[in-house]
Structure formats: C-alpha cells, structure tokens
Automatic annotation (TrEMBL):
Record protein name field: Gastrotropin
Organism whose genome encodes this protein: Leptosomus discolor (Madagascar cuckoo roller)
Family: Belongs to the calycin superfamily. Fatty-acid binding protein (FABP) family.
Compartments (UniProt record): Cytoplasm
Transport as UniProt keyword: yes
Keywords, sorted A to Z: Cytoplasm, Lipid-binding, Transport
Superkingdom of this protein's organism: Eukaryota
Main location: cytoplasm
GO cellular component: cytoplasm
Annotated ranges, domain Cytosolic fatty-acid binding proteins: 7-24
Amino acid sequence: GNMAFAGKYEFEGDENYDDFVKKLGLPGDKIEMGRNCKIVTEVVQNGNDFTWTQHFPGGRTTTNTFTIDKEADMETMGGKKFKATVKMEDGKIVADFPNYHHTAEICGGKLVEISTASGVVYKRTSKRIA
C-alpha cells in the first residue's frame, strides 16, 4: 500500500482563502480565525484506512476517520457533519463535501489540498514537520 500521506504537516500558505470561505458562507469571526492559521494536519494511514486530524491554535481539533471507497461520517471546515465516500484517484485523496470538492496529495514532500466551490479554487500547502 501507498503510505505517502502519513505524517504531520504545518500550514505554509494558501491562495484564494477569502473568496472561498465567503462562497461557503462562513461567518466573519470564523473567517478571521482561519486566515493564515497555523493549522497542523496529522495523517495516520493504515492501508486504505485514514485518520485525518487538524490541530488548530488554541487546542481545537477536527478529526475525520475514513476508509477509501467506503461511506464515512465527515465534518466540514465550517463544522457541519455529513456522510461522504472518499476516493483515491491517481494518488490523490478525493472527497465531495456538501458545497465543495476537495482533493489532497503529497507533492514534493508537501501536503497540497485543493478545494473548489462555485468556481473558486482554494489551495492550501502544508510543509512536513514529522
């Protein structure tokens, strides 16, 4: 199995953050909180089983646990809960959230996540720290 994702990554930079979160309808305080937020993403991978945790400054965490090609309970950036089936396509993790399409891949040792909502493409890059 391809264990490329396992590790800990720290937010390095992003593109189109404001346009994207406005499209999602996030409230102003959430938007400010998330801007240039030094989120640490921790990925534990066991074959097709993933535990994907985001650690926010101040101690808040969001964890999504899923198996490739099986329906799982997920939580969005805005904290909404829903069911989704996560797929693996060309080494990328692909998930459809209720109002955006999300991909994650390892590119040059970095975690690159791309979310698309109503034509706005939000890209977040995190560098490996462990």
